[in-house]
Each structure stands twice: as C-alpha cells, then as structure tokens.
Description:
Layout: H1 2-18, E1 28-29, H2 43-63, H3 65-75, H4 88-102, H5 111-136, H6 145-175, H7 184-193, H8 198-201, H9 208-213, H10 220-245, H11 251-254, E2 257-258, H12 283-312, H13 314-317, H14 327-338, H15 347-371
Parallel strand pairs: 1-2
Subcellular location: Mitochondrion inner membrane
Family: Belongs to the mitochondrial carrier (TC 2.A.29) family.
Membrane topology: Multi-pass membrane protein
Amino acid sequence: xxxxxxxxxxxxxxxxxxxxxxxxxxxxxxxxxxxxxxxxxxxxxxxxxxxxxxxxxxxxxxxxxxxxxxxxxxxxxxxxxxxxxxxxxxxxxxxxxxxxxxxxxxxxxxxxxxxxxxxxxxxxxxxxxxxxxxxxxxxxxxxxxxxxxxxxxxxxxxxxxxxxxxxxxxxxxxxxxxxxxxxxxxxxxxxxxxxxxxxxxxxxxxxxxxxxxxxxxxxxxxxxxxxxxxxxxxxxxxxxxxxxxxxxxxxxxxxxxxxxxxxxxxxxxxxxxxxxxxxxxxxxxxxxxxxxxxxxxxxxxxxxxxxxxxxxxxxxxxxxxxxxxxxxxxxxxxxxxxxxxxxxxxxxxxxxxxxxxxxxxxxxxxxxxxxxxx
Length: 374
C-alpha cells in the first residue's frame, strides 16, 4: 500500500515538473509557511484578519464606486436623476449626465469618505465573523446552516454600529450634485445642528448634545434590521457555495493546487494542506461564489436599504418641513410614492454593483489570508 502511495506521489511530482509551461502549472500556489494558526483568539491572527478584511473591502468599493454614486442618487430620489431610474438605459444616461456636469471626479464624489468608512467597516466585519464563528461553531459537529447564518448576522451588526456615522456622511457627500466642492468637516457640523429626534429631545434626562449626536445614526434601525438578512445571507451563501464547489466531482477543477499536497488527492480531508489549512478555490470559483452570495444577500435586504437611504437624506430633500421620520412612516411615504416597486428602485443597478463588489471582497480576503498564513 505504501509503495503505491509513493509511486502516486512521485508520479504527481513528475507531472508537475513536466508541465511547468502548461496552464495547470500556473494554478499551483506556493507552499504556506509552517505554523498555521490554531487559536483564532491570537492577537496576531486578529490583526492580520482585520488587515485582510480592510484591504478587501477597500478594493471592492473602489471597483464599483461609479455605480455606487448613481445608485445612491436613484435611491434618494434626487430631482436631477429620478427620471433616469428604472432601466439599464437610464443607468447609462445618468452616467453621461454626471460626466457632462462633473467629469470623472463626479463618479468618485464622496469616495474618500467611503474608504475612510469601508476599511474599518470591513476589518471589523471580518474580524467579528471569524471570532463569532469560532465561538458559535467551535468544531465541525456544531456547524449548521442556522449557526452560519447567525455568525454572519452578528458580524454585520458589530461592523455597522462602529462605522454607521461614516456611512451617513458618505451618503450626504454622494447626494450633493451642485458645482462646488463639499468639505467633510462643515458637513459634519451641519448634520449635528439639524433638528434632533423629538422622541429624544423631549426627554429632560437626555442631554441636548446626545440627541443631536444621534443625528449621525439617522436610519440606523432599518440598517440594523436590513443587516440581519444581508450579512447573514452573504456569509452563509458564500460558505454554502464554497461547500458545493469543493464537492469531490468539482474540486479537481475548482480548487487550487499547492506544492505540499498530492494533486490527485483532492478528496482527502476536504482539500487541506499538510499543515491543516484549507486550500483556496480557483479564481473563477472564488469569484463565482462571492458574486452569487452578493446577489442573494442584496435581494434579501434591499427594501431596508431603500428606507435607510431616504431617512439619511431626509433633512436635505425637505429642509423646511423636515422632521425626524420614523422607519414605518418612511415606508408609508415610499409606498405612497411608487407602490411596492419603490422598495426595489435601483435593484438592477444593485445587482450590477454587488456581484463584482462581493466577489472582489471575498476573493481578496481569502487570498490575503492564504498568503499571510492565517
């Protein structure tokens, strides 16, 4: 038996040497360094996973920044762009309109604030997911679909709470379409000085500064409600598609080869290296899993995102009659304006945006984890 194994291993190594110029040779990753992490509470592991998550999120957001600007203008019913909403041709026309009025910079208006938000957001999200998943699913025996869903949802809630004010500032910057440069600090002061929630300001025991500080969390409740299906479904679907693509029938085509594993033994130990690390998927397989996960999660959470965007820009759209609108009231307004379709305005753009964004995010994250040996 051992002789056969030795021949098999030698044969696979000979094939690798003979095919160094072939396409298959390009699919071989370098050997991961020894000492893979077994304790995910290790500070070095936490910092590296946070760095990988932050870089992954920044790359993904930069990739789709122009589409993100147009989507926000559609979602918030900006008077200059509402006529373009609802079709792919409208998407193109909106892009031409932005180009003619503001040039290339118009597609990236508010992007600096986006990067300031997305790096800590993605870092916290991936750190939280790794840590929460490690607690909820300590071993293979505890791994269920429900536990996977809960891990992703809780990770999303942690990241949103830490970075929501930055998201609101980003939306305000993206919403402004006038021909002048908007500075971040004056915008922050303006948001703080806007009318606070009456339910907070009317309470004598709540300080006035705290009520105004809550302006930076306008639309937070629908965000939290929407994050439960979005983050939960996103991570759950990504893991599920990973499992499908690692099936023994698909693995020879979807899993990368590494030089410390016999290329013919993909079915052994769910494609793990000798050090115990799971081998990453091919580029096409990783992008496919991430893209499908993004589309699934976007569909589940999109109505809540519409409500959140409208709440975030409420003080801008009607500055004279503005009052702190609740989530149910905003839902009624949206339904009165456009019916049930109003909750899915811009969803087609959302698909075009989310598919490459989530695919890029998971791809960069998984690759960075591999090369940093975590």
